[in-house]
Amino acid sequence: MIDRRDALAGIVTMFGAALFAPIARAASGKIPVIDTGPPSSAVFTAGQRALVTALSERVIPTTDTPGAIAAEVPAFIEKLLADWAMPEDKAPILAGLDAIEARSRRDYKVAAAEATPEQQDALLTLAMNGALPGGADFFDKFRQLVITGYYTSEIGITQEREYLPVPGEYDGAFPYSNVNKVYSS
Amino acid sequence: MTATNQYDAIVVGSGVSGGWAAKELTEKGLRVLMLDRGVMVEHGADYSYDGKPAYEIPARNIMPEPLIESDYFIATHGYVSPASQKFYNNDRLNPYAYDEGEKFYWIRPGAVGGKSLIWGRWSFRWSPEDFEANKRENVGIDWPIRYDDLAPWYSYVEKYAGVSGSRENLPQLPDSEFQPPMPMNIAEKWLKERLEATSPGRKLIHARLSNMTEDKPDQGRSRCQFRNQCGRGCSFGAYFSTQAVTLPAARATGRLTLRADAVVSNLEYDPKARRVTGVRVVDAKTGVAEIIPARLVFLCASAMASTQILMNSRIPGTGKSHFDTSGTLGRYVMDHIFRVGISGEIPGMTDYIEYGRRPGAVYIPRFRNVGGEEGVGFRRGYGYQGSAYRNPAWPQGFGAAMKHGMRRYDSWKFGMGAFGECLPYEDNRVSLHPDKVDRFGVPLMRFDVTFRENELKMMSDARTEGEKMLRAAGLINVQSERKEHVPGDAIHEMGGARMGADPRESVLNKWSQAHDASNLFVTDGAQMASISCVNPSLTFMALTARAADHAVKQLQAGAI
What we know:
The complex is a heterodimer. Chain A is mainly alpha-helical. Chain A contains 8 helices and 3 strands; from the N terminus they run ααααααααβββ. Chain A has a domain at 46-160. In chain A, 49% of the residues lie in helices and 5% in strands. Residues 1-25 of chain A have low confidence and may be disordered. Chain B folds into 2 domains: 3-122 and 259-334 and 428-447 and 493-556, 3-Layer(bba) Sandwich (FAD/NAD(P)-binding domain), CATH 3.50.50; 163-217 and 337-420 and 452-482, no CATH class. Chain B has helices spanning 16-27, 65-71, 128-137, 147-161, 186-198, 242-252, 303-311, 400-405, 453-473, 537-556; strands spanning 9-12, 32-35, 163-164, 178-179, 205-206, 256-259, 262-270, 275-283, 289-293, 296-299, 340-346, 352-355, 362-364, 382-392, 409-420, 429-437, 443-448, 476-482, 513-514, 517-522. In chain B, helix 1 (16-27) runs parallel beside helix 10. Chain B is globular and about 75 Å long. The two termini of chain B are 22 Å apart.
């Protein structure tokens, strides 16, 4: 039983009744789907991207398990900064990369991405200790990005750590000696 | 068949209460239409991220900040994640007057199943004291029911839903019909012994959860698999949800019609007959509205949404609701106060770790003012939910040393959070906005709800006592924090259409039945005259089953 008068009280016709920003925005609104494609815009220059790649591997290097590059952490960082973070979150990362780049050219006469791993570690240490402009802020945030990207990647979850999709049981006194790897959540 | 007898009953909302209403009413022979404003979610098939690791979930299951800011700025306080996004309300599309009145987080679901898909699953009976304190203290209104009225209905719903927990014989926390409890881990057992020895009269007990520890093959449900990913939906059906429990039962009768994307704006009312005649529904996809008649209506839209629907069912030409003869509609709104946390390190036992991920751990039941006022400066009390756990180490720096340093676990830690009872206050109220409406033409809800001196003193006590208890038990580096107490944040908002014996003072009678319409029952959190300090959903279930039984008996007797 459709009430014809009420049928007019539909989604679009009601918008004359009030001026409330979220409602106006809702007029054409659909529930958004999280964009998982390539970054919608380039966050980094080619040089910055190379540096992000190199530094991410210094934060989590390849050891007996793969490191940040194999886990595609650099791509995660660029995607996150492009589409999953607030626009203002890019600035401290970009500023820190530029400061590291400038210091590398001054001290080592090469682009930071081309510096040796030891030199890159020295540059990261300078940032960590606040000896570069914006360095400490950059280091904390960049380290967090790398850790998050790595330990949520397939390599991080299944090779560096161990994922139990269906533990099936709970043991609250499981011998630590039986633990091979830290469990991913 | 004419439209007027297509359905015997309409159930508005499909969450904890709505699902039970649909199950009970259909099983008793009624043809039921269940409406939900949210999208359809089928058990299993629509749990898109059930069991998946982070790398198979959009944005690694971290809610993108711009999306929170544009669309989930309220839901973000309610644990929304990419894996559970579709179960939550979109705050942009479906707003309330959040920038007016007092700050309130109205955290809403956006799917069939309502909050039953995304709830915390802690399940407690309320106590005799909870139903008697209002009268004894002359606070709010006396409950028209007592614990004994509800006890058989608690048993009834517990046996079907499946509640795990331990028998404790505590007067302030009556035992349920339990499945075996989730085990405590070695550190929690250690803490239990020490805490109970050093803080006499206080208890640390197993969590009570609607997560099963035994299978229910008759319902096609398995016990908990210790994944602790409940909020994504559980294909094992291990926790109570509409999808896993009540919806299959209602569907099995062949008498249920379920409509998603069906927004109820108001109830139609015949003032002469003093009856609800139908439900006005707007199709969320097309915007087309219709009125669906019914002999019986169960309003189970959630405490605040049911109150909104009642308030928006207005006498033509007035702003007054058909259901507000008492003048109490929209008043005495409550939520549990929380955001007080206490934590510390548990020494030793580092040769042990947890295997598997529990969905809940331990509880310290209320100890303040149990069995009478203790002169502690506030009324009622609080309990703590907590757990002991070991996190991976979190070394500083970078490089191989950091990476390999993260391959071990830190020492045991224990953390707990307090949930306190909020008293009913007449001027803690919700109202319809005078001129702002949503996209379906429904006036926006405005909240004027604040915590008062009693609640704030209670939380100060919860912080102090929590620290004292954990220190006395032998924890080290005990710390506490107290964050902003925003009503609604506990997602235990209740009241707005309280029950009472006197129609001049209450919206509903002791059967959850409207004083102003004998064929209208409101069986969600709106009916509460006080809120205990323990989680409410189990009480919604019991009250709903009880009301459905009464409604059908009255229907059969021709009384409604």
